[in-house]
Automatic annotation (TrEMBL):
The keyword Flavoprotein applies. It comes from the Bacteria. SUPFAM superfamilies: Flavoproteins. GO terms for molecular function: FMN binding; oxidoreductase activity. The keyword rRNA processing does not apply. Gene3D superfamilies: 3.40.50.360. This is NADPH-dependent FMN reductase. Residues 1-143 form the NADPH-dependent FMN reductase-like domain. PANTHER family: CHROMATE REDUCTASE, NADPH-DEPENDENT AZOREDUCTASE AZR. GO terms for cellular component: cytosol. Keywords: Flavoprotein, FMN. The lineage of its organism: Bacteria, Pseudomonadati, Pseudomonadota, Gammaproteobacteria, Alteromonadales.
Amino acid sequence: MNLLIVSGSQRKESQSAKVAKYLTNTATLFNEVTHIELCKYNLPFWDGEQASKSAIGSEWPMLNKKIQKADAMVLITPEWGGMATPILKNFLLMCDAQDTAHKPVLLTSVVSGISGAYPIAELKMNALKNNKLVATPEHLIIRHVEEVLNNKQLENLTQRDTNLRDRINYSMHMLHQYSQALVQIRIKHKERPFPKQQEYLYGM
């Protein structure tokens, strides 16, 4: 099983990237883990046309190969004004269902304060419709992110940090189980397609 972790902050050296690196180190059940930090890549603003993805200088074709290879994904976004970041939403608009459909995704929100629920609600409501990614029942909200997932000395962790790490371990464990299960769905989807399947490329 291959895991793709996408951190959607528009700032380099972000807390989202820090969380992504922590998740990468804990995803030991997966055979291969790849981290994409979106702000480090040149992605065009998608205009609804396929040609925009391969515009001059676009790095989308390379990123799309990583998406195709993945069996599961983690999407990480900071909370910006109660929303997921534009760069992450643009990334999701560019994802094609033939590469992402029926793959599990763990949604993760990063916030410096005590909120963080709004980006999760937004992504569940309208970011997975046409790419047909499957959000797992679990999601993560990393509150007061500057204060957690920093210390490598486990004996010096606060109780809140310890509880968060336990929740992360559980969520990654469940993501791995969903990735194994949904492989079978994708295989059957190809071997025994629904009649007129191509008429239902987009979610309702």
